[in-house]
Design a protein that fits this description.
It contains eight helices and ten strands. It has an eight-stranded parallel barrel with strand order 1-2-3-4-7-8-9-10, surrounded by seven helices. Strands 5-6 form a two-stranded antiparallel sheet. The chain is α/β, with parallel strands linked by helices and about 300 residues long.
């Protein structure tokens, strides 16, 4: 399987002041998928403009034709499966079946407290995700769903006509721990990772590759437990959070080297951040566009 190259466009620009043009340019550059973060605010962008993921993706669907669209990632921090399913079915319809849902347990950032609750522990986040994903799966594949769980309920929730993509739009499940990887194996069409966060500050690229190899092996084990062939599952690396940081975007050669090492680990899709000046995602736009247009051909 050839390596796909995708991008993530943060929702920090007004639509008519550069937002729309970024999504259109992403399609022109040939990216497989353009994702956006699904947060209420995020890190250093908290005190600046930040727009909602699903309205942004809906607008992007209206100004693109071929490129896939998605979230990296949606979480239970401020979402409910019933309302999320209705919005996803609508987005899948508007886009003509081009949506991928990246989904994960969420973290302890601003989303975790914006609704007034205390941040959930890692176990609590995992518990919620373990209930959230199967219920969302049902809501996107069945006409009517009733369910009573520990955290989520649905009472005769109707989702007609369902997704354009059948049996539903694909899930890309972000996970590194055992429970999350089992959830990805059972419900995901793809698996997402950012690497091992413990290595970000002081680790080396070589240690990161080893950690990612270990994660991939655990995913394969989780698939084997349920009789699934991991070879049929897409594996997505969201870059920018490994010890390499921004170095792969410094030149085409640097990126081809980085992407090739991760392709050899079994990754099928590499996601790079759209450049944002004066941020952690600053990069030379000309180099970024060269990577977008030429890297896939170099990688095969």
């Amino acid at each position: 399987m050839s390596l796909r190259l995708s991008t993530v466009i943060l929702p920090h620009r007004r639509w008519h002041e550069g937002g729309r043009s970024a999504w259109q340019r992403a399609e022109q550059l040939g990216f497989h998928t353009a994702y956006t973060y699904d947060h209420l605010s995020w890190r250093s962008f908290r005190d600046g403009p930040w727009f909602g993921a699903l309205p942004t993706l809906t607008a992007a669907a209206g100004v693109t034709d071929r490129m896939r669209l998605g979230t990296l990632v949606t979480s239970p921090n401020f979402r409910h499966p019933v309302t999320l399913a209705k919005e996803l079915i609508s987005l899948d319809d508007i886009s003509g079946g081009r949506v991928t849902l990246g989904i994960g347990a969420g973290g302890t950032g601003f989303d975790a407290t914006a609704l007034g609750q205390e941040p959930w522990t890692p176990r609590e986040r995992a518990d919620r995700l373990a209930e959230f994903v199967p219920l969302l799966d049902r809501l996107l594949t069945e006409d009517a769903v009733s369910y009573e769980g520990d955290y989520y309920s649905a009472h005769e929730a109707r989702n007609i006509p369902g997704c354009v993509q059948r049996p539903r739009l694909p899930f890309a499940v972000a996970a590194t721990g055992p429970r999350g990887l089992r959830l990805a194996a059972r419900h995901g069409q793809a698996w997402v990772t950012t690497g091992d966060p413990r290595l970000y500050e002081n680790g080396t690229p070589e240690q990161s590759v080893q950690a990612l190899r270990g994660q991939s092996e655990k995913l394969a084990d989780a698939c084997a437990e349920i009789g699934r062939d991991v070879a049929g599952m897409d594996r997505i690396l969201l870059t920018g959070f490994t010890p390499d940081r921004a170095r792969p975007l410094q030149s085409l050669e640097a990126f081809v080297d980085f992407a090739g090492r991760h392709r050899d680990l079994g990754f099928t899709e590499i996601v790079i951040h759209w450049p944002i000046p004066d941020s952690d995602f600053a990069a030379d736009e000309k180099v970024f566009e060269q990577i977008a247009m030429e890297a896939a051909g170099r990688l095969g």
